[in-house]
Automatic annotation (TrEMBL):
The encoding gene: nnrD
Keyword annotations from UniProtKB, A to Z: ATP-binding, Isomerase, Lyase, Metal-binding, Multifunctional enzyme, NAD, NADP, Nucleotide-binding, Potassium
Descriptive protein name: Bifunctional NAD(P)H-hydrate repair enzyme
Organism listed in the record: Rhizobium oryzicola
Ranges of residues in domain YjeF C-terminal: 222-493
Cofactor: how bound: Binds 1 potassium ion per subunit.
Annotated residues for binding of K(+): 62, 122, 158
NCBIfam families in the cross-refs: yjeF_cterm, yjeF_nterm
Every YjeF N-terminal domain range: 14-212
Function: Catalyzes the dehydration of the S-form of NAD(P)HX at the expense of ADP, which is converted to AMP. Together with NAD(P)HX epimerase, which catalyzes the epimerization of the S- and R-forms, the enzyme allows the repair of both epimers of NAD(P)HX, a damaged form of NAD(P)H that is a result of enzymatic or heat-dependent hydration. Bifunctional enzyme that catalyzes the epimerization of the S- and R-forms of NAD(P)HX and the dehydration of the S-form of NAD(P)HX at the expense of ADP, which is converted to AMP. This allows the repair of both epimers of NAD(P)HX, a damaged form of NAD(P)H that is a result of enzymatic or heat-dependent hydration.
Binding sites annotated in the UniProt record for AMP: 409-413, 438
Length: 495
């Protein structure tokens, strides 16, 4: 597989692909015909005993797909009823032609009374919806969802933003969704992902060369995108070549987070891992560490001395470290190094985020920030509050502003680079939402940075590996039991 298999198209990019196809001489109605036929085939395959297929057709090309699907279902002998939104005489181009060659029953949407046993083909809006659904549609959606009728969505369940995955007023909960050529962000971002049901992607015949011209920098996170950046072990590999990761610990009563990060870093391939801790934490940490080394670092003076004399490759700062001026002082000393700033490290800059961004503004990307929703709002309050931006756009804007790889965490984690690339992650199970899992995650990324993986690729790989390790751990996972499964996640990269 290649990166093409994982590319996501925004509704605007898919619209561009459609236009480029028409300009190249491809019959656009033939594309609509294939799309509608694919919808009908899916409906017949998954609901062969349906009493009636109810096709809801909207005022655009999504509705055109619906008219084609209705004709194909009727030709197969199925009972079909079609209901339209708006004036069907106002349909344009291909959608108008599709409606004209539908010779079955046709009634206004308001005439439809949801009935047990109906299988609904939702062809109202598709992926391009950008404003809340009209009130009559919202009322119908509520009635259909309450009856738990089976729904096959065309492109996306009506009411779900194809760009942002959010619900615009109300949305159908589909059992299945058929989309065309490529997935859209709304198929992967929440809550859209959960409203799509099973997703089918059907190739209607747009050439790859056109998709390559129309497509952007958004992908589903997958090893095909970053596997080539990971280090390969060879016979002359030694521990220093695999990098030295330093993890900073908090005081005596706050050492657990650093131990989790350090242990994760060690099994993720760092040749050496050292926990840097204040003097009062040394006696607590020493009995708990074996292969992980320990260094007493109390202040900026001792840190600077260590940086001047030791061969250190990457750093993790924040988990359990504490919020305040010491954290900011340590980050200043690490500004020319590869650093994962997480948790307390992020919060320490909430009063002046620009200071953090300025420290890493120049040169190649070497900072990885891993905020959850609340931490993101502390560093990027204007972006967090913007109603016009979705999660992907917020992460992209944050990455550019901070010159950092941004991991905007959540059940639909987004990883973004300053150059505009963004990945949406999909493999994380819900049981990752447990204390300490973020500390483990920071350690994985730190180890990859220590081995020379570029910041964005290290962040993307860390997210995916974290998710796969959690899947292997199972629902009873804790942060401690997650760590032994990290090597098996790496093994999947070579299977």
């Amino acid at each position: 597989m290649t990166s093409r298999n994982h590319r996501l198209f925004t509704p605007e990019e898919m619209g561009l692909a459609d236009r480029l196809s028409a300009e190249s001489g491809i019959d656009s109605f033939a594309l609509m015909e294939r799309a509608g036929q694919a919808v009908a085939a899916s409906a017949l395959k998954h609901w062969p005993d349906a009493l009636r297929f109810v096709v809801l057709c909207g005022p655009g090309n999504n509705g055109g797909d619906g008219y084609v699907a209705a004709r194909a279902l009727a030709s197969a002998g199925a009972a079909v009823s079609v209901y339209h939104l708006g004036d069907p005489q106002g349909l344009q181009a291909d959608a108008r032609e599709a409606k004209q060659i539908w010779h079955g029953d046709l009634a206004p949407l308001a005439a439809y009374v949801p009935t047990k046993g109906d299988v609904i083909i939702d062809a109202l809006f598709g992926a391009g919806l950008s404003r809340p659904v009209p009130d009559p549609v919202a009322e119908l959606i509520s009635a259909v969802n309450d009856l738990e009728l089976s729904i096959l969505a065309v492109d996306l369940p009506s009411g779900v933003s194809g760009r942002h995955g959010v619900v615009l007023g109300a949305a159908f909960r589909a059992a299945r969704t058929v989309t065309f050529m490529s997935r859209k962000p709304g198929h992967l971002l929440l809550p859209g992902r959960e409203l799509c049901g099973e997703l089918e992607v059907f190739d209607i015949g747009i050439p790859q060369r056109i998709l390559d011209r129309a497509g952007g920098k958004l992908f589903e996170n997958h090893p095909d995108l970053w596997r080539h950046t990971l280090p390969a072990l060879s016979s002359n590999t030694h521990k220093y070549r695999r990098g030295h990761l330093a993890v900073f610990s908090g005081g005596a009563s706050h050492t657990g987070a650093a131990r989790l990060s350090a242990a994760a870093g060690l099994v993720s391939g760092a040749g050496l891992v050292t926990v840097a801790a204040p003097s009062d934490a040394i006696s607590v940490l020493a009995p708990a560490l074996t292969a992980v080394m320990l260094r007493e670092i109390d202040n900026t003076s001792s840190l600077q001395s260590w940086l001047d004399t030791a061969k250190l490759s990457a750093f993790v700062l924040g988990p359990g470290f504490g919020v305040g001026s010491k954290t900011r002082d340590f980050v200043r000393l690490l500004a020319d190094r590869s650093v994962v700033v997480d948790a307390d490290g992020i919060t320490s800059f909430k009063d002046d985020p620009a200071e953090l961004f300025t420290l890493f503004a120049n040169g190649p990307t070497r900072l990885v920030l891993t905020p959850h929703e609340g931490e993101f709002a502390r560093l990027f309050p204007d972006l967090a509050e913007s109603e016009g931006l979705g999660k992907v756009e917020k992460a992209q804007a944050a990455a550019k502003r901070a010159n950092a790889a941004i991991v905007y965490k959540g059940a639909d984690t987004v990883i973004a680079a300053p150059d505009g690339r963004a990945f949406i992650n999909t493999n994380a199970p819900p049981w990752l939402a447990t204390a300490g899992s973020g500390d483990v995650f920071a350690g994985i990324i730190g180890a990859l940075l220590a081995q020379g993986v570029p910041a964005f690729e290290a962040a993307a790989a860390g997210v995916w590996l974290h998710g796969e390790a959690a899947n292997a751990s199972g629902p009873g996972m804790t942060a401690e039991t997650l760590i032994p499964h990290i090597p098996s996640a790496f093994d999947l990269l070579h299977s």
